[in-house]
Amino acid sequence: MADRQPPMDSHAAPAPAGAARPPSDVLAPGHSFGSVTDKITSAILRPGFLPGWVFGFVIAFGVMSMFLFAVSYLLIKGTGIWGVNIPVGWGFAIVNFVWWIGIGHAGTLISAILLLFRQKWRMSISRFAEAMTIFAVMCAAVFPVFHTGRPWLAAYWLFPYPNSMNIWPNFRSPLIWDVFAVSTYATVSILFWYVGLIPDLATMRDRARPLIVKRLYGILALGWRGSAKHWQRYETASLLLAGLATPLVLSVHTVVSFDFAVGVVPGWHATIFPPYFVAGAIYSGFAMVLTLAIPIRAYYGMEDFITMRHIQNCAKVMLCTGLIVLYGYSVEAFMGWFSGDPYEGFMIWNRMTGNYWYMYWFLIFCNGVMPQALWFKKVRTNIPLLFCIALVVNVGMWLERFVIVVTSLSRDFLPSAWGMYAGTMWDWMTYIGTLGLFTWLMFIFLRLLPMISMFEMRTIVPSAKIKSEGGH
Amino acid sequence: MHHVDDTPKLYGLMAEFDSATAIVSAARKARDAGYAKIDAYTPFPIHELDSALRLSRTKLPWLVFFGGIGGMLGGFALEYWVSVIDYPLNIGGRPLASWPNFVIPAYETTILCASITAVVGMIMLNGLPQPYHPVFNAPNFSNASADRFFLVVETADPKFDAAGTRQFLEGLHPLGVTDVAE
User: Fold this and answer.
1) Are B25 and B112 contained in the same domain?
2) What is the pTM of this model?
3) B47 part of a folded domain
4) Would an 8 Å CB–CB cutoff place A23 in contact with chain B?
5) Is the pLDDT of residue A128 over 60?
6) Cα A136 from chain centroid?
């Protein structure tokens, strides 16, 4: 025992490698299994509340209350309080739905697709990105549910179950495809998130002091004990879930785009829609990941785990998907001319110069022009600037959906059927309210669950590397 | 663990290690020494342990495969039954069994059922939820979810012998060897 000194041994070996490692790696040097665990659990196991957390929580709760108020009034009065009209029968509800669902996509991309590609930078941001996915899907679900006016009656329009009306949904409709895609997406995201949490919940169980807290984490951890055979099945299940979630996430925004593309409205009826929507979803999702990661990292002092490498990689994904989205805008404009179809040509001309021209050009600025700054490393490593760009992209992606939905509907085939649309106070209260709901849920998550996957972080600690027999 | 009674029944002997390399080498040596009822407990997955403990491959992928097939057939059957048999609707003169329209919901139910099978299958095959397990009686075992690695030889092992096995485990240079009460 004395001659071997395993602790010294395990720390001494990675030191030369650590010195050569660039400062922008996925884990700051000098961490051990214990230090990673302590740092991440300390944010939860500390007694009392941090003042900044309380401040944010109260504001988010206030904004969420506004959402509850707006929805309560909607249920009393009906959807007439919203701005939707004929011809613009789809307004804020679908714009917000598509926006929120898109935001969710980054979480699944990080946890599933990057897992299949064995990207180590996924590990420290996957947990809260998956939480973001689940909360974003919840916010998205609010809109289709409440736009029915009487959601308690909506179940039989949406889900195929034997009901007293003896009728069934129409499976030829993209709106039913959407119900299947989004509810599957929500379920699989929650399962994936929970599976990832099981070993960390066991850590929480073993480290929490108050008995009731210990018991609660213990129940959720299912008696996880880290047996080698269990880990083997666990890793297999994670890999399979990643393999299943990858085609799922690509299908979800594809199906959302079918809501539009299957219709014959100019500006919607385009084959570019599925890839263009998926890229836009990942684009806005990564913007939201940065919007969340930057303050969380600073407030909880997680710079060792969420390093500049993570921040830069998110920025690069944004740049890449942003270029795909810009390509989508270009193809729309090109097809307006190349198709020779007068309605298509009018649609794109109307977007650029019609009643909503300022929205279109602001959208091009937010999603197309501004993110070109991300080509420069100076911008990608400038945290405040990056935070601002992420916010601008979030706004831009909302505008994109507004432009797609509203400009096409307000100016379709017959000038006699033209009309204008604007959200009412209730539309805005509901939309901003879901931002409150989302933030409120994030605050609860940060207080109760490990925000970074501890067991995965342990695997990238240098001493996790197995040295071959006789190597010392 | 206030066992004032004469002798608590023994579940096994547990050796504690503080590095991933040590647990892999200890597990391999225990297996090579002929112990069969052994298990390693680690705070993160260590793939080398699969070969060190000679774990057989899990049958989970097959379950997930059949879960997915079941989801696909079930989803498609539901759509067919609803649209063709129970509630035929003429939508723009299209055939009732307009299968291209049925692809997407069936695709989603495939993924849904396969994912649920993966999660439920992993939990059930692991015998979870399991509120009680003897290893939790070991004093330091709470560190198995943080920074310590444990090797347990069960008394059920045919080669188990209280004194001999303890001596063997001591020979692996652990931080300590403890009894695990049943």
Assistant:
1) no
2) 0.90
3) yes
4) no
5) yes
6) 6
In this prediction, residues A442-455 reach a mean pLDDT of 92
User: Which residues sit opposite B149 in a β-bridge?
Assistant: B17
In this structure, how many other beta carbons lie within 10 angstroms of the beta carbon of residue A163?
12
Does the CB of A177 have a partner CB in chain B at under 8 Å? yes
Nearest to B108 by CA among B150, B72, B77: B72
Q: Which of B133, B138, B163 is nearest to B151 (CA)?
A: B138
Q: Which residue of A has its CA nearest to B145?
A: A203
Q: Residue B142 maps to which CATH number?
A: 3.30.70
Query: Is A27 domain-assigned?
Result: no
Q: Which residues of A214-237 are buried (b: 16+ CB within 10 A; e: fewer)?
A: eebbbebbbbbbbbbbbbbbbebb
Q: Are residues B112 and B79 in the same domain?
A: yes
Same domain, B76 and B103: yes
pLDDT digits (tens, 9 = 90+) for A151-185: 888 788 888 888 888 889 989 889 999 999 999 99
- List, as ranges, residues 365-424 from A with C-beta within 8 Å of B: none
Asked whether the beta carbons of residue A228 and residue B173 sit closer than 8 angstroms, the reply is: no
Handedness of CA A343, A346, A351, A354 (dihedral sign): negative
Quick one: pLDDT at residue A219?
A: 93
Q: At A71, list the tokens.
A: 């929805």
Rounded distance between C-alpha atoms, residue A131 and residue A127, angstroms: 6
Mean pLDDT of chain A: 88
ipTM: 0.92
Q: Give the CATH number of the domain where residue A80 resides.
A: 1.20.1630.10
Which of B68, B105, B144 minimises the CB distance to A226? B144
Q: Does A42 touch chain B (CB under 8 A)?
A: no
Q: Chain A residue with minimal CA distance to B17?
A: A6
Chain A from 235 to 274: CB within 8 A of any B CB: 235-237, 240-241, 244-245, 247-248, 251, 255, 258
Q: Can you tell me the distance from the alpha carbon of A392 to that of A371, in angstroms, rounded to the nearest whole number?
A: 9
A232: which chain B residues are within 8 Å (Cβ-Cβ)?
Answer: 45, 50, 55, 58
Phi, psi of A383 (to 5 degrees): -65, -50
**What's the rounded Cα separation, in Å, for the pair A253 and A212?**
42
Domain count, chain A: 1
pLDDT of residue B2: 54
pLDDT mean over A39-54: 88
Give chain B's domain count.
Answer: 2
Give the E-state strand segments of A389-462 in sequence order.
none
| Inter-residue contact B151 to B17 (CB < 8 Å) | yes
Q: What is the pLDDT of residue B5?
A: 55
Look up the domain containing B64 and give its range: 60-125
Q: Can you name the residues that pair with B154 across neighbouring β-strands?
A: B12
Same domain, B64 and B120: yes
State the pLDDT at residue A365. 95
Residue where one domain finishes, among candidates B99, B125, B151 = B125
Please tell me whether residues B65 and B119 are part of one structural domain: yes
Residues whose CB is less than 8 angstroms from the CB of residue A293 and which lie 6 or more positions away in sequence, other chains included: A125, A128, A306, A310, A311, A314
Whether the pLDDT of residue B72 is over 80: the answer is yes
A463·B131 Cβ contact <8 A: no
Backbone dihedral region of A28: left (phi > 0), alpha (psi from -120 to 50 degrees) or beta?
beta
